[in-house]
């Protein structure tokens, strides 16, 4: 029975669908799409570094919008204040990811076919070459059968093709792994993008001020600045951080490392898991956590005392250096004094007057450690403004006092918790390996064997020259023909080389 009109129409529809699908896959795998999306992502990221990131009500974004009223509507419409979560950026990254996946799959299929061909070529013998080859070269009468392969080997060596002779076969066959470089590189890029995406969803990244001798739990309340992904959870985090010491001018191996803290990571029981000096290019890595120290400052150890002089609370107040401040320091934050119901009664700012040398404030503990205490009412009015030395106290309005117990150092720790970090480095290393193989490894098959046929002895040749080969098929044919017959080779049949 023949096909009816509906069958023919359905067949045509399937052909159209397959054609459209092939065209779409071709576009997705094209180099111009990958280069275009990568360029967009790069330019977008550069622009994002010049524009404050955050919510519209944040101080930095609001100040930028006020300073650039003409640009703000465009920036806001494009979502550049949340550049890396904006729909346009995510759509471009998604398109890039799909493009790389399609390209990776295509390159995987090519690599598989080539690797299978290489394995078969590595097992080839004289009989198989005689039965399947692309070129035959008739040996000149003066060329003995035993001399044909050595002569051919010398001719190929002059072209940069290193061969070996064994059991009547001259061969230059690349190892099977040489064709996998491009596929490995592209799949590593896919893995890298995937781990970066997962990392952004679940990582935490923040700054924590920790004074020397102080221990802080790894909890949201301990951070001064904190960014977390939408999938991040603190439920499984049971560790704390301690700064054991701080050398304001550490020299190691003759290199000035600057101010360097000694940081410890403690487990849930308070046991030290790891202790290490932390300075540029020497981060502390423990599990999923990476700790750096971008800055240090001073720390005022303040004791809150009752009216009877009994200490009821203690606080380490971090203080940053500032050459533009009147005394050379500024408070990182204000200390709150609370009543029994938990409501704020007043706020306290603490700074440390620094010594001056040569018109500049010396960024170290002053020769006479003192703290400048300013107590503010809730409406901002100044209630107390005094300077006290170590051991001295100042009275608080309403009773009680603040005592300066000491001036020391604090380290501003940059803490990143992201389990994908080692996988990102692994993906980058694998990508680099794949790229190196793709750029450096030869992908070739050169097989030759002497065949004594009815028309006389000939050299049968099988070739595949895919990548990084220092010569061409035409040069090989010409060199072998000149060395063995003084003429030109005769193609045996059409080449069945695998398309790249």
State the gist of this model.
The chain is an alpha+beta fold. The chain contains 10 helices and 24 strands. It has helices at residues 5-28, 31-49, 59-67, 72-78, 87-122, 126-131, 145-158, 181-202, 421-440, 473-484; strands spanning 135-138, 164-166, 169-173, 204-211, 215-217, 225-228, 240-252, 255-266, 272-277, 284-286, 289-305, 311-321, 329-331, 335-338, 344-351, 356-357, 360-361, 370-376, 382-389, 393-395, 401-417, 443-453, 456-467, 490-491.
What can you tell me about this protein's structure?
α2 (31-49) packs across α5 (87-122) and α7 crosses α10. The longest helix has 36 residues, at 87-122. A hairpin with a 5-residue loop joins β20 and β21. The chain has helices spanning 5-28, 31-49, 59-67, 72-78, 87-122, 126-131, 145-158, 181-202, 421-440, 473-484; strands spanning 135-138, 164-166, 169-173, 204-211, 215-217, 225-228, 240-252, 255-266, 272-277, 284-286, 289-305, 311-321, 329-331, 335-338, 344-351, 356-357, 360-361, 370-376, 382-389, 393-395, 401-417, 443-453, 456-467, 490-491. By secondary structure, it is α+β, with helices and mostly antiparallel strands. The protein has three domains: 5-106, no CATH class; 124-174 and 442-491, TATA-Binding Protein, CATH 3.30.310; 204-417, no CATH class. The protein is built from ten helices and 24 strands. The protein is 34% helix and 34% strand. Strands 4, 6, 10, 11, 12, 13, 20 and 21 form an eight-stranded antiparallel β-sheet that branches.
């Amino acid at each position: 029975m023949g096909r009816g009109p509906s069958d023919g129409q359905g067949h045509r529809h399937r052909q159209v669908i397959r054609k459209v699908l092939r065209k779409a896959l071709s576009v997705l795998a094209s180099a111009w799409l990958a280069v275009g999306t990568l360029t967009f992502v790069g330019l977008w990221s550069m622009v994002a570094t010049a524009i404050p990131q955050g919510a519209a009500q944040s101080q930095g974004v609001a100040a930028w919008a006020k300073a650039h009223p003409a640009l703000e509507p465009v920036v806001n419409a494009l979502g550049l204040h949340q550049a890396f979560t904006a729909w346009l950026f995510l759509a471009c990254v998604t398109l890039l990811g799909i493009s790389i996946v399609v390209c990776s799959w295509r390159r995987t299929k090519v690599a598989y076919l080539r690797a299978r061909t290489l394995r078969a070529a590595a097992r080839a013998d004289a009989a198989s070459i005689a039965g399947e080859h692309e070129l035959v070269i008739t040996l000149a009468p003066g060329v003995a059968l035993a001399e044909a392969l050595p002569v051919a080997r010398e001719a190929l060596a002059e072209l940069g093709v290193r061969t070996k002779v064994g059991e009547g076969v001259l061969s230059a066959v690349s190892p099977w792994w040489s064709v996998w470089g491009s596929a490995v590189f592209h799949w590593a890029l896919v893995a890298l993008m995937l781990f970066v995406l997962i990392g952004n969803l679940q990582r935490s990244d923040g700054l924590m001020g920790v004074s020397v001798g102080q221990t802080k739990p790894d909890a949201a309340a301990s951070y001064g600045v904190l960014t977390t992904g939408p999938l991040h959870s603190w439920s499984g985090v049971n560790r704390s951080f301690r700064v054991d010491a701080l050398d304001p001018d550490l020299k190691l191996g003759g290199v000035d490392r600057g101010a360097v803290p000694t940081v410890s990571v403690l487990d849930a029981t308070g046991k030290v898991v790891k202790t290490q000096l932390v300075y540029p290019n020497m981060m502390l890595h423990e599990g999923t956590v990476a700790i750096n120290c971008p800055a240090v400052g001073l720390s005022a150890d303040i004791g809150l005392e009752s009216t009877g002089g009994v200490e009821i609370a203690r606080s380490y107040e971090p203080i940053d250096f500032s050459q533009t401040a009147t005394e050379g320091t500024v408070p990182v934050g204000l200390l709150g004094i609370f009543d029994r119901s938990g409501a704020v009664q007043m706020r306290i700012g603490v700074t440390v007057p620094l010594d001056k040398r040569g018109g500049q404030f010396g960024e170290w503990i002053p020769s006479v450690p003192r703290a400048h205490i300013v107590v503010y009412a809730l409406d901002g009015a100044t209630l107390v403004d005094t300077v006290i030395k170590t051991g001295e106290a100042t009275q608080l309005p309403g009773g009680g006092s603040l005592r300066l117990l000491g001036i020391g150092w604090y380290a501003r720790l940059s803490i990143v918790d992201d389990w994908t970090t080692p996988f990102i480095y692994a993906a980058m290393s694998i990508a680099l390996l794949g790229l190196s193989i793709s750029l450096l490894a030869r992908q070739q098959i050169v097989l030759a064997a002497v065949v004594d046929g009815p028309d006389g002895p000939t050299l049968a040749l099988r070739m595949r020259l895919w990548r990084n080969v220092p010569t061409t098929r035409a040069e090989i044919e010409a060199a072998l023909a000149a060395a063995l017959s003084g003429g030109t080779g005769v193609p045996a049949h059409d080449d069945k080389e695998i398309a790249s």
